[in-house]
């Protein structure tokens, strides 16, 4: 399905869900609660609007070696604006649909588009366009520890693709396997042609375990594996940006990958120290080792919150957050601030 037709279909689905909620409301009283955004509930039927707006201001001073050109740059831009819906219609079924518009031409595309069935409290069957591997990648951008994800997250290109996933969840562990295709935003494959008619396909799995889970400390370990094959689409390209999302990619292999296998390890130590009045948490001591091989990249970013309370929520643990401001240092230098207008939940 092409991007244009899929967005139209998704809009129709959202209208149908809204109409269904209205019909149910005639039979039962509908309650409204605030959970980052208004959530409407009617018995086991829930409907919630979700979204976020990111505005980035970036200043770069880059010194390059060899034949690379040194430059300075500054830019204020709309990073992304997302709008979507999520909800349930009984204890077993849940849905989520979210689209985004980004700067640089106002590109519109699907983000998460999922349908989940839970036969019991520990088992989920999920189908749709979503992320499946790498803690660094699947942790929402609303709760990232750093201003940007690590360079190797860009390198492995573990974004949202179409998946059919089975997941088991315990008190302090998870295990999931999935069969994957291409992104829902990719163009339709060619037809009536000798080549180009087989889309990208693959499979993946991920396991996690938290040996320590307290109000102030979380220890998370995990691992994942992914195999993918380009089919007869374009070869995979392995490339990374500098330490912000803005600007060109300095390192790229070109289109060379026919298939690949990736193994990732995850390790997180999250500790919150409360030093303020009334038990408020004034700072977070956070050492996050998401995907250990990330440290093999060119320059390891070191980024630190400069002011304001700064606590974080990841797939490994959760705490409240306030305004953020970062200084980032690696092979170049940049300062980036992000006014975040956020009204959403995971």
Your description of this structure?
With 346 residues, the chain is mainly beta. It has 3 helices and 19 strands. The strands form 2 sheets. It has a 17-stranded antiparallel beta sheet that branches.
Number of beta strands: 19
Total domain units: 1
- Note poorly predicted spans: 1-13, 274-346
Number of helices: 3
Mean pLDDT: 73
Question: Helix content range of the residues, please?
Answer: 10-25%
Largest sheet: 17 strands, antiparallel
Q: CA-to-CA gap between the ends?
A: 26 Å
SSE run: HEEEEEEEHHEEEEEEEEEEEE
* Radius of gyration based on Cα positions: 21 Å
- Backbone shape: globular
Percent of residues in beta strands: over 45%
- Look at the helices and sheets and give the structural class: mainly beta
Write the layout of secondary structure elements.
Layout: H1 3-27, E1 31-34, E2 38-42, E3 45-62, E4 71-88, E5 93-102, E6 107-120, E7 123-130, H2 135-138, H3 151-156, E8 161-169, E9 173-180, E10 201-213, E11 217-229, E12 236-241, E13 249-257, E14 259-273, E15 283-288, E16 302-305, E17 325-329, E18 333-337, E19 340-343
Antiparallel strand pairs: 1-2, 2-3, 3-4, 3-18, 3-19, 4-5, 5-6, 6-7, 7-8, 8-9, 9-10, 10-11, 11-14, 12-13, 14-15, 16-17, 17-18
Write a compact overview of the structure shown.
The chain is mostly beta strands. Helices cover 10% and strands 50% of the residues. It contains three helices and 19 strands.
């Amino acid at each position: 399905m092409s991007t244009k037709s899929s967005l139209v279909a998704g809009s129709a689905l959202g209208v149908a869900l809204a109409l269904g909620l209205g019909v149910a409301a005639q039979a039962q009283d509908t309650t409204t609660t605030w959970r980052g955004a208004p959530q409407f509930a009617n018995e086991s039927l829930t409907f919630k609007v979700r979204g976020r707006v990111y505005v980035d201001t970036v200043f770069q001073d880059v010194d390059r070696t060899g034949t690379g050109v040194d430059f300075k740059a500054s830019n204020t831009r709309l990073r992304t604006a997302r709008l979507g819906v999520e909800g349930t219609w009984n204890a077993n079924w849940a849905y989520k649909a979210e689209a985004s518009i980004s700067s640089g031409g106002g590109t519109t595309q699907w983000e998460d588009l999922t349908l989940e069935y839970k036969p019991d409290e520990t088992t989920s069957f999920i189908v749709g366009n979503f992320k499946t591997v790498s803690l660094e990648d699947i942790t929402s951008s609303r709760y990232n520890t750093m201003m940007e994800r690590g360079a190797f997250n860009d390198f492995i290109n573990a974004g949202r693709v179409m998946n059919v996933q089975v997941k088991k969840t315990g008190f302090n562990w998870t295990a999931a396997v999935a069969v994957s295709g291409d992104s829902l935003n990719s163009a339709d494959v060619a037809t009536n042609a000798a080549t180009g008619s087989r889309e990208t396909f693959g499979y993946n799995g991920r396991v996690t375990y938290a040996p320590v889970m307290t109000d102030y400390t979380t220890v998370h370990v995990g691992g994942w594996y992914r195999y993918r094959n380009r089919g007869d689409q374009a070869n995979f390209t392995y490339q990374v940006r500098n330490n912000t999302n803005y600007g060109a990619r300095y390192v790229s292999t070109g289109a060379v990958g026919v298939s690949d296998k990736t193994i990732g390890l995850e390790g997180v130590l999250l500790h919150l120290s409360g030093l303020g009045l009334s038990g408020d948490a004034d700072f977070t001591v956070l050492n996050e080792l998401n995907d250990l091989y990330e440290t093999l990249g060119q320059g390891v970013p070191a980024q630190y919150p400069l002011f304001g309370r700064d606590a974080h929520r990841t797939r490994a643990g959760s705490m409240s957050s306030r305004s953020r401001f970062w200084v980032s240092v690696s092979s170049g230098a940049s300062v980036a601030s992000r006014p975040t207008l956020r009204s959403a939940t995971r």
